């Protein structure tokens, strides 16, 4: 008899990662995965099944509801896996606001609440809703579960979450929420398993990918993070600006007479590494470029990351370890070295060979702070939470 199967959807603003897990007695175990980049022409499904990798052209048009694309995608998965055994689908939902402190089954009520939060994360939240609605249309009897990026940060105090605005704004939900919580939750679990002494202490984790943020952990709980009310805040990212004087937005609107939509496009899609360099949003392309604008973009990236590490250390009252994770954090030694060089005053020393090899521990024996490189796995957390909610429903019935 085959194990029950579980699908996970981890959407970005223009792509979606799909995970397929077997639900075993030891928990969900990944058996396949796929990626769709909605910017690619023609549209393709990058599918991994065991040792086999396939790039499959998709014939379906990208429409507002994604029904046809997802139907074709599931049919391709069914060519390789027994999707008749599919029992649940888990979704990463970026924003849970103050409503959601943990995973929930998707019902009409919870989906309406998720939809109300679209203005707080317009690009990512809308993508999650489209995927949920597509699965509802294609497999209406399947239990769907939403896992929220903001939930992990609910352990932060109101002092940390508050802006210096009139109190009525905080009461209305204008506060720091934080994101990448599923990634930090996974890193906390890896630390607890592999580095228990460090896990009990104070950790600054840096999730550096196209979207990027940092989180201060104390005993595995989130105490502060660089992203705030929206996914624009904090350090510069691939195309997002990071922390910005609010006066700049007023200047764009009032003096330059730009429309709110135009300003939104600049801040989300045309800033960050792309905006500074004028070359690329990909830090790998900037590393290989000789142009001074590329070098400046990377220097500003490292400068802001190092500054945020120091700020989070203030919240934590010191820190014992620094963790790099996600695409850039896991695979780009040059970025890690540039950040750590700016933090040598804290006693951070890298082992250059270990760093070049992307080893798990890249700090030298004499470093006062342990520096780690740990792969993250948001889909595993989504799968774990989907199984947990499914089991709760089974017990309740």
Structure description:
Helices cover 41% and strands 21% of the residues. With 397 residues, it is an alpha/beta fold. It has an 8-stranded mixed β-sheet, sandwiched between helices. Strands 11-10-9-12-13 form a 5-stranded mixed β-sheet, sandwiched between helices. A hairpin with a 3-residue loop joins strand 9 and strand 10. Helix 6 packs across helix 16 (378-396) and helix 12 (292-316) packs across helix 14 (333-341). The longest helix has 25 residues, at 292-316. The model has no long low-confidence stretch (mean pLDDT 93).
Give a quick set of tags describing it.
13 strands, about 20% strand, about 400 residues, globular, 16 helices, alpha/beta, five-stranded mixed sheet
Topology at a glance:
Layout (H helix, E strand, L loop, with lengths): L4 E7 L3 E10 L2 E11 L6 E6 L2 E6 L9 H14 L5 E8 L10 E2 L2 H9 L5 H17 L4 E6 L9 H4 L5 H5 L9 H14 L1 H4 L2 E7 L3 E7 L2 E5 L20 H10 L4 H10 L2 H6 L5 H6 L3 H25 L4 E5 H6 L1 H9 L10 H5 L13 E4 L4 H19 L1
Parallel strand pairs: 1-6, 6-8, 9-12, 12-13
Antiparallel strand pairs: 1-2, 2-3, 3-4, 4-5, 7-8, 9-10, 10-11
């Amino acid at each position: 008899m085959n194990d029950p199967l579980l699908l996970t959807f981890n959407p970005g603003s223009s792509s979606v990662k799909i995970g397929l897990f077997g639900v075993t007695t030891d928990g969900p175990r990944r058996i396949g995965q796929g990626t769709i980049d909605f910017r690619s022409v023609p549209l393709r499904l990058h599918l991994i099944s065991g040792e086999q990798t396939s790039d499959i052209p998709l014939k379906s048009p990208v429409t507002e509801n994604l029904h046809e694309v997802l139907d074709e995608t599931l049919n391709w998965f069914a060519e390789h896996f027994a999707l008749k055994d599919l029992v649940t689908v888990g979704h990463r939902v970026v924003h849970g606001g103050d409503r959601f402190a943990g995973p929930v089954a998707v019902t009409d009520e919870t989906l309406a609440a998720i939809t109300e939060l679209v203005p707080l994360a317009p690009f990512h939240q809308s993508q999650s809703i489209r995927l949920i609605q597509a699965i509802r249309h294609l497999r209406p009897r399947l239990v769907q579960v939403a896992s929220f990026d903001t939930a992990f940060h609910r352990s932060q105090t109101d002092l940390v979450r508050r802006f210096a605005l009139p109190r009525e704004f905080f009461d209305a939900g204008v506060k720091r929420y934080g994101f990448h919580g599923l990634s930090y939750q996974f890193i906390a679990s890896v630390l607890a398993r592999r580095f228990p002494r460090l896990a009990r202490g104070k950790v600054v984790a840096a999730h550096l990918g196209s979207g990027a943020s940092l989180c201060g952990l104390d005993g595995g709980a989130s105490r502060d993070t660089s992203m705030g009310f929206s996914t624009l805040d904090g350090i510069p990212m691939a195309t997002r600006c990071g922390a910005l004087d609010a006066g700049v937005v007023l200047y764009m609107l009032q003096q330059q007479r730009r429309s709110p939509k135009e300003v939104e496009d600049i801040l989300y899609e045309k800033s960050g590494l792309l905006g500074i360099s004028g070359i690329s949003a990909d830090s790998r392309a900037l590393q290989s470029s000789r142009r001074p604008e590329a070098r400046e973009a990377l220097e500003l990236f490292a400068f802001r990351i190092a500054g945020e590490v120091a700020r989070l250390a203030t919240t934590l009252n010191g820190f014992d370890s620094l963790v790099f994770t996600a695409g850039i954090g896991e695979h780009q030694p040059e970025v890690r070295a540039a950040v750590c060089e700016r933090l040598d005053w804290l006693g951070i020393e890298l082992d250059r060979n270990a760093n070049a090899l992307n080893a798990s521990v890249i700090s030298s024996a004499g470093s006062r702070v342990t520096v780690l490189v740990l792969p993250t796995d948001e889909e595993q957390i989504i799968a774990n939470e989907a199984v947990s909610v499914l089991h709760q429903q089974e017990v309740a019935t």
